[in-house]
Each structure stands twice: as C-alpha cells, then as structure tokens.
C-alpha cells in the first residue's frame, strides 16, 4: 500500500509513511540511527538526506504518519511537547504579539508562555474558554500592543476535563485575525481532529497517547498552511529540538495501535467513571462520557469517544485525595498519562505544581487518573481498596 490517504483511521495508522524499505524489503522501515548521510559528490545528496538535525528518514516516516492521522498537510516532530510548542510560537509570533490561552492549560504550557516567552516580549492572558464574553473581551483587548495573534486551547482540558467548542472558538479567533491552536494531547487524533473543526494548528505531546507506552518523549505540530509550515520547518532545523531517531521510531510503532488502545482506554474509563459516581467518598467525577458532565453533549458531537482521562474530587479534601493517590497498587503514582499502564497523579503537587498559587491552580481534593488498558475489574478493585482506606 503506497497511498493510504483515503482509507480509514486504523489503516492510515498502520500504513502512512510506512513503505517497506526499498533496499531489503524490510516490512518495517528501518531505524536510521545516524547523524549524517554520505554524499555522491559535493552537494549530491541521496534522496535529499544530508544531516540528522535537518532530516532523517525515521523522523520523516513519523511526520507522514502524524499528518495523515490529523488530516494536515504538514507535520513536524520534536524532542518533547514543550519543544514543539516553543518552536511553534517562536516561528509564528514576534515580540509585541499576544497569546490568549485557556485558564486551565497544561502547567508546562503556561510556564513556557508566561515565564519563558514573556521575557522575549510575547504577552499573554489566561481566560475561561467557555466564558464567551470574557473570551471576546480578552481577544479584543489583545494585550499591551493590542495584537492577539494566537488563541490556545486544550479540549478536554488538563486536569479539569473542560470541553470547548473548537468550531465556535475558531470563529472568535479568526474574527480577530488570530490563529487557533488546539493541544490535542488528551483526545489524540483517533478521537478528535481539530483541523477538520476549524483549528489552524494542532500540537501534541506524543509522549502521551500517541507514543502510548511511556517509553519515548516527543512533541508534534500538524497544520495545513504552507507558509506557516515553512517557518516552523525552518525553526525546527535552525534551533534543532528535533526528535531523535530512536524516539521517532518508537513513537511510530506506538502510533500504529492508537485506535485499539484508545477504544480500550475509553471503555475502561467510562466504566470506572460510572463506578466512582456510586461512591459516597466522592464529591465529583470529571469525565466527559458522563451525561451529567457539562460538556457531555458537545464532546459527543466533536469527539468520537470520551478518552481515558478522569479527574476525581473527594469530599474528604486534600487529605483524602493524597491518601487515595498513595494507596493504589495497579495504578502507579507518577506524572504523565496516556500509556498502556494506569497512572495516578496528584496534580496540585505533581503535574501542576508550576501553577500552584496562580489563577490556574488545581483543587487540592483532586486526583487525576490516566486509565490504562488493563482489565477493568482489576482497576476497579484497586480503586475500591484505595478508597476503602479512607
Ligand atoms: C505533557 C503535556 C504537554 C507537554 O509535553 P512534554 O512531552 O512533556 O513536553 C503539553 N500538553 C499536554 C496536554 C500535556 O499533557
């Protein structure tokens, strides 16, 4: 199969960018663990490959796969999600420009924009993306120079699981002459394709669901605008925060099974969320698959499933949340998410420690579950004994 463009998601996941090696017929494209490429004469490159920071066939294969799965023309892969975000902003914005971001974006994204990029003259404001009036006012105000150039959203958001209407938000951003960037890490391209809903750029931490096995860090930018893509490609090459060949190869391998993994993550999470609702110790279950979730209907419209992430708030406050987080045996207490194994996180002190005390602070009675693909009965039994210890 050479052109899987018009095929279903899982066929594209398995075949896009995965042409068998022309030299040996190796069904799996080889891992090109190299930094440089022999030239047949000065400047006479074989298939355009010259130097690893610029291009590498293993990275190209991953980028083709990512573009095919997000429905974009161009994809760029980086050493981490934050490296991708940094490259995106520095490629497309200039000092004096302004970014509006959701007030519950990933803590590291907030830190990058608010503490690193602000020093270089890119201002920002954080708003509730579901508060239309506040959003329009912030976009119109556009920071000190009145130049809103980018609107940045996560949906579902991390860890509050808020759902934002991507198409409506694209309208607000475009009216102001700004780009809409969607961090699609939580949904993954299997459950949601922001470009098809009107977004201009998709970013991913491929460290999470796309890689899916907690063994390779990475980030990606996917988009269809050729002019913007050229600028991003230049920054990727000139700054060099590229994904290493081994990481790209592992990410490609993980991405092939994204569909089957997401189906299991989603069905396990749905069952666990419904079970948590029945527990008297639980104050609130934040999961878009629950009919009581404020974003349920919107999520059902713009996503193809509800994903594997659940946040839970406990009546017993911080003490109860900490106790549960430290009492599980199948769920591992660790940062990160999206791997095949179930992880438990206490955001206030772990993933979101960088926003403690800011307007983005996470409630202290909240734990976040990244529901893995284990047998759901074992996961529920584990949570039952942990919650039972309260
Ligand atoms: C983890 C994460 C990031 C950052 O990605 P890294 O690979 O850790 O740099 C960005 N956005 C979201 C939603 C994340 O979960």
Automatic annotation (TrEMBL):
<dbReference type="GO" id="GO:0005737">
    <property type="term" value="C:cytoplasm"/>
</dbReference>
<dbReference type="GO" id="GO:0003962">
    <property type="term" value="F:cystathionine gamma-synthase activity"/>
</dbReference>
<dbReference type="GO" id="GO:0019346">
    <property type="term" value="P:transsulfuration"/>
</dbReference>
<dbReference type="InterPro" id="IPR054542">
    <property type="entry name" value="Cys_met_metab_PP"/>
</dbReference>
<keyword id="KW-0663">Pyridoxal phosphate</keyword>
<dbReference type="Pfam" id="PF01053">
    <property type="entry name" value="Cys_Met_Meta_PP"/>
</dbReference>
<dbReference type="GO" id="GO:0004123">
    <property type="term" value="F:cystathionine gamma-lyase activity"/>
</dbReference>
<dbReference type="InterPro" id="IPR015422">
    <property type="entry name" value="PyrdxlP-dep_Trfase_small"/>
</dbReference>
<feature type="modified residue" description="N6-(pyridoxal phosphate)lysine">
    <location>
        <position position="208"/>
    </location>
</feature>
<feature type="region of interest" description="Disordered">
    <location>
        <begin position="1"/>
        <end position="28"/>
    </location>
</feature>
<dbReference type="InterPro" id="IPR015424">
    <property type="entry name" value="PyrdxlP-dep_Trfase"/>
</dbReference>
<protein>
    <recommendedName>
        <fullName>Cystathionine gamma-synthase</fullName>
        <ecNumber>2.5.1.48</ecNumber>
    </recommendedName>
</protein>
<comment type="similarity">
    <text>Belongs to the trans-sulfuration enzymes family.</text>
</comment>
<dbReference type="GO" id="GO:0019343">
    <property type="term" value="P:cysteine biosynthetic process via cystathionine"/>
</dbReference>
<dbReference type="InterPro" id="IPR000277">
    <property type="entry name" value="Cys/Met-Metab_PyrdxlP-dep_enz"/>
</dbReference>
<dbReference type="InterPro" id="IPR015421">
    <property type="entry name" value="PyrdxlP-dep_Trfase_major"/>
</dbReference>
<dbReference type="GO" id="GO:0030170">
    <property type="term" value="F:pyridoxal phosphate binding"/>
</dbReference>
<feature type="compositionally biased region" description="Polar residues">
    <location>
        <begin position="1"/>
        <end position="10"/>
    </location>
</feature>
């Amino acid at each position: 199969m050479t052109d899987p463009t018009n095929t279903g998601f899982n066929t594209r996941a398995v075949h896009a960018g995965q042409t068998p090696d022309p030299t040996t017929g190796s069904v799996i494209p080889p891992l090109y663990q190299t930094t440089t490429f022999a030239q047949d004469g000065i400047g006479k490159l074989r298939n355009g490959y010259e130097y690893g920071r610029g291009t590498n066939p293993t990275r190209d294969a991953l980028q083709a796969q990512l573009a095919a799965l997000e429905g974009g023309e161009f994809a760029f892969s980086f050493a981490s999600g934050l490296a991708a975000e940094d490259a995106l902003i520095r490629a497309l914005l200039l000092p004096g420009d302004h970014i509006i971001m959701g007030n519950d974006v990933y803590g590291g994204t907030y830190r990058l924009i608010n503490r690193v990029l602000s020093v270089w003259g890119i201002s920002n404001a954080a708003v509730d993306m579901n508060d239309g009036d506040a959003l329009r006012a912030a976009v119109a105000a556009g920071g000190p120079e009145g130049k809103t150039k980018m609107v940045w959203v996560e949906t579902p958001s991390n860890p509050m699981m808020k759902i934002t209407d991507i198409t409506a938000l694209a309208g607000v951003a475009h009216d102001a002459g700004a780009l809409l960037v969607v961090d699609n890490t939580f949904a993954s391209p299997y459950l949601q394709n922001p470009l098809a809903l009107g977004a201009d750029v998709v970013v991913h931490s491929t460290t999470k669901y796309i890689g899916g096995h907690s063994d390779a860090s990475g980030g990606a930018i996917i988009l269809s605008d050729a002019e913007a893509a050229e600028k991003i490609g230049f920054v990727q090459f000139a700054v060099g925060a590229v994904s290493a060949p081994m990481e790209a190869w592992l990410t490609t391998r993980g991405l092939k099974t994204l569909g089957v993994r997401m189906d299991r993550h989603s069905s396990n999470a749905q069952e666990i969320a419904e079970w948590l609702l029945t527990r008297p110790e639980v104050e609130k279950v934040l999961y878009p698959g629950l009919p009581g979730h404020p974003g349920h209907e919107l999520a059902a419209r713009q996503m193809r499933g509800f994903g594997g992430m659940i946040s839970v708030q406990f009546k017993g406050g911080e003490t109860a949340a900490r106790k549960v987080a430290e009492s599980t045996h199948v769920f591992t207490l660790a940062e990160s998410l999206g791997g095949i194994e179930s992880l438990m996180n206490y955001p206030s002190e772990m993933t979101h420690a960088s926003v403690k005390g800011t307007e983005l602070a996470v409630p202290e009675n909240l734990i976040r579950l990244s529901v893995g693909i284990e047998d759901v009965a074992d996961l529920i039994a584990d949570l039952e004994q942990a919650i039972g210890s309260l």
